[in-house]
Amino acid sequence: MLDREQLLKITELDGAAIEQMDGERLTSFAATANAFIDGFPFQEESVKSALKLKDRGALSESLSAVRDMLRQIYAEKLAESCLTCLGTIDDVPYEELQNFVINFLKSVSALSIDIQMAEYQDASKPPAGGGQGPAGKNTILAVDDRHFFLTSIKTMLQNSGYKATCINSGMAALNYLKNHRPDLFILDIEMPEMDGYELARRVRAAGHTAPIIFLTGNAHKDSVVKALQAGAADFIIKPVTRSQLLERIGKYIKPEIPEDEE
Hints:
The chain is of the alpha/beta class. The protein is 56% helix and 9% strand. It folds into 2 domains: 117 residues, Up-down Bundle (Four Helix Bundle (Hemerythrin (Met), subunit A)), CATH 1.20.120; 123 residues, 3-Layer(aba) Sandwich (Rossmann fold), CATH 3.40.50.2300.
């Protein structure tokens, strides 16, 4: 069960409210957080369905349900952001509304995953491959079957001081690892022939201990638990943005800084 210390590390939650909870209230709150984890994927699908149909009424109803869930777990900033959207949902251009909703769902998915990581990771030890890498250790192996994504992520990483190698299949990645030891892995979960879970397990079996960050499009409990069991240290929600990518990677390794900038 989630404890106070674990909950306080989740930045989207209201730490002040959590600090004031007694043991009984904390137990009740942990149960509410679990209900949020279980319920959000269904509400997310409802929001996406309304968005696809361009049904603003249904979208408003679905977003209101998500906001209620967020308020129950004291995720006040996200709840307020949702309320702002609801106040203008009939007035803003649809493309603008769509962009907000997509980004909002990404943020809520990330929160759900953070809660699940806090609960399901073994509290007695750090995440597999976790911890801050030493300065200058900045080589990254990214594996995804989509050429466009690999090109995009390589550009983002190299322009930010990281050394990136991008490979489009699990078998090719395993062959590469026979002669290389990256400082961090970025693995897509959904790949043909060998998915990210299997690749992560084989990476660990080969003796590689560097952090593994999974790319995922959902916050379903089964997917998160399976990824953690395979060796995940963290997650990035798709579609990937540069700021999100660098924020997650920066928790584990730092970019190389040119000498003239030191």
